[in-house]
Design a protein that fits this description.
heterodimer; A: alpha/beta; Rossmann fold; 6-stranded parallel beta sheet; two-stranded antiparallel sheet; 11 helices; 8 strands; 11% strand; globular; B: alpha/beta; 2 domains; 7-stranded mixed beta sheet; 12 helices
Amino acid sequence: MNDSHAMKPHLSREHLLALLRAMVRIRRFEEKCAELYQQEKIRGFLHLYIGEEAIAVGAMQALTPTDAVVATYREHGHALARGVSMDAVMAEMYGKAEGVSRGRGGSMHLFDAATGFYGGNAIVGGGLPLAVGLALADKMDKRDSIAACFFGEGAVAEGEFHECLNLAELWRLPVLFVCENNLYAMGTRLERSESQPDIHIKAQSYNVPAEVVDGMDVVAVEAATRRVCAAIRGGAGPALLECRTYRFRAHSMFDPQLYRDKAEVEEWKHRDPIDRLASWMRETGVLHDSDVAAIEAEVAAEIEHGVAFAENGHWEPIAELSRDVYAAEATQ
Amino acid sequence: MTDAVREITYRDAVREAIREALLADPRVFLMGEDVGRYGGCYAVTKGLLDEFGPERIRDTPLSESAFVGAGIGAALGGMRPIVEIMTVNFSLLALDQIVNNAATIRHMSGGQFAVPLVIRMATGAGRQLAAQHSHSLEGWYAHIPGLKVVTPATLEDARFMLAAALSDPNPVLIFEHVMLYNLSGVLPPDAGPVDIQSAAVRRVGQHLTLITYGGTLFKTLHAAEALAKEGIEAEVIDLRVLRPLDAETVLTSVAKTRRAVIVDEGWRSGSVSAEISARIMEGAFWELDAPVGRVCSAEVPIPYPHHLEEAALPQPAAIVAAAKATMGG
């Protein structure tokens, strides 16, 4: 077996701290968003990723700057983990012109050309064809890049999932499909909507290599992603990771969570990806109280900066309302 | 490409346009159902697979949403895809990708991403293909901000609108009426290029304005000739582009003739004809000498038998009758 550099995470103290910091950064950012939502600074839909941070953080470790990322409406974590500016994300949540999507998208539609972040798609399954097309462009243009597509297990019930797995495999396209299986499509539990609830088996039926990953373990996610990305970059075609996870918060800010037991939520909280990594690091002696304090302080300062940036941002003039519906230039 | 005066069909004109685009730009490729080995269900793309190979002439599975969405993704990724959907009826399986992604991404991303995608599809009735292959739904797409919608009716537009669409940084939908593919005529050596922003006056007249597009252009021109024999000179406007709509050309003509009849193969309710009528009301109400008339398809799913299909569609006799009614006759 090729034990190449790209295929294994380097479990140095520095790297583990970076993983921890990245997850804490998403967690604290979203906790702040929930608070700002209560204050009506953020409006519309707000879907929190809390509990699932290990997937975005782990998977992004295997991506290069030229890769494309396609995500869902629960994508704050992916954007931050990909390197989209927190200031610009927070301003987008406010709907300000300084937002990463110029305020036009809000929480569900974060886009960032600089980091190859192609949204923020609020139609379940709607991002998968885009990832297939981005990968097709990579392949036709003979680039070494791949398209990473994040979606929930709810998307598996959409026809686009099946069409896209088939097409990506048929054309041997460099797509990394990351299914974030948090068990509930809004309020519908997986077993209540799928005759075959093992998603990786569905992928295998299209000849797409697929495996189950513990989505609460950031190191496991990183290791699996590095391994499959090396194969995808090597021309093996697409692969799917089914990351088993759980969202600790409601589906959106409007969800009273009548469909699941509090005990179930509590049980999953014992597997919190941040606590889990931190405990393991403490046990192995690579995490100290001072590290945690430093991470929390840094993250708090960055969030404070983001909130100030958003607060000080400006509302786009209404005269600009129809901007960017069509290209300003006639040709390109 | 057009060295001398020569006879050409609409089908050949579209094929030449695709071939020219493939030769001109390595980013251009074609994908769709049976575009390659089969040669296209209307034989438009026959021969292209042999010339350009399977990388650039891509046969797709019957997965409209996936391959249209892949076209959007490839456009985001720097390519210039031409996606063919067999008919507008099948495009409904890709409606999510066209309306929720292609039309919105530029705006939702604050102008960071463009979708320079061209989608071609056949539209319209007349071949006894019944209700799931015969509808004219281009008006639905013309409702959507972010899309451009064009309807080449003439050989020149069939030959040159594609180049204009490919050089446009927005998603452009091209609707080819199924009854036009066998249309044959002479393409002058100096034909093209054409724009995709203006309507065209196809016949000059002073007594009333007939406004149409796509498959009903020639029916309307026939009606205009019949009217001319009775001393009524109709101006015929080919809209060419349903979005953005060139209302100015329509209003200028109506201001001159003071009478208008709209001919649209779509159903009357909520149609392109309804939109044109409203634009005339908004922009030329005080110029009108008569209410705006309309000739549209009967409000039925298009039926299979020839006589019922013909009865459901706008025909020259009905256009003549509507024109005369507008003239007060």
